[in-house]
NAD(P)-dependent oxidoreductase (Xaviernesmea rhizosphaerae), 251 residues
Amino acid sequence: MADDHPVLLVTGASRGIGAAVARSAAARGWQVMVNYLSNVAAAEAVVQRIAAAGGKAALVQGDTGTEEGIAAIFAGVDRQFGRLDGLVNNAGVVDSTSRVEDMSRDRLERMFAINVIGKIRCASEAVRRMSIRQGGRGGAIVNISSMAAVLGSAGQYVDYAATKGAVDTFTIGLAREVAAEGIRVNGVRPGIIDTDIHASGGLPDRARDLAPTVPMQRPGTAEEVAGAVLYLLSPEASYVTGTIMNVSGGR
Ligand code: NAP
């Protein structure tokens, strides 16, 4: 693939929604930087699958919940590709199910560090590289939110839902701030998607168990979320900014 293809950074791209976005983006001609936290084998598999399909991808380790991690990720982008045209702010975590009064300060700080501050800081680094006001050539950012932002996740993880509400507000504000600088900023709110995230919260069957509560009567796939993300990144969405798209089967 020619080096003049646009470059997309996907955080948390070793598994789940991020991996599906990375694969779909590569199939549409993006060069993809695959970020991961700890699962190097899964990240390598994503890169190899993209290469096998004729695409171009590289991987970079980095914790989006820390300044050192974010610096390493963007240093990797600069070193590997020397340009940045898109960011999918995907990395996010849940914690074990809990009532609010039992949530510790440490838990809340980790949750907000990764799901909110990490996304704001990654977007900041992307804007520095993409803003035409700062010598860049423009670009697009997609923030991965959740239907939890509007539903609240009572009895499960209200803290997580609150981080996603913050992400939505950030999407609207940043979109307006950089709209005249060639950067579009949008969000996607997945509903119940069949990935590992539910097991990481101690509810491995959550997607299947909640299927009857979804109007479409099934969980979504990571690929279905990726379709929305790729639209928002694409030239077809050239007049779309500050929008948050539900991908939730009607939930
Ligand atoms: P997942 O299957 O648990 O995968 C999480 C990915 O994020 C992995 O690639 C993981 O890397 C990476 N990651 C986790 N913490 C990170 C950190 N601090 N720094 C860098 N990477 C990190 O999750 P998912 O279901 O695909 O969720 C992706 C996004 O969609 C999240 O923002 C989530 O809140 C949102 N979402 C998901 C659902 C759903 O039902 N699945 C619904 C609504 C919203 P390793 O492989 O190295 O651990």
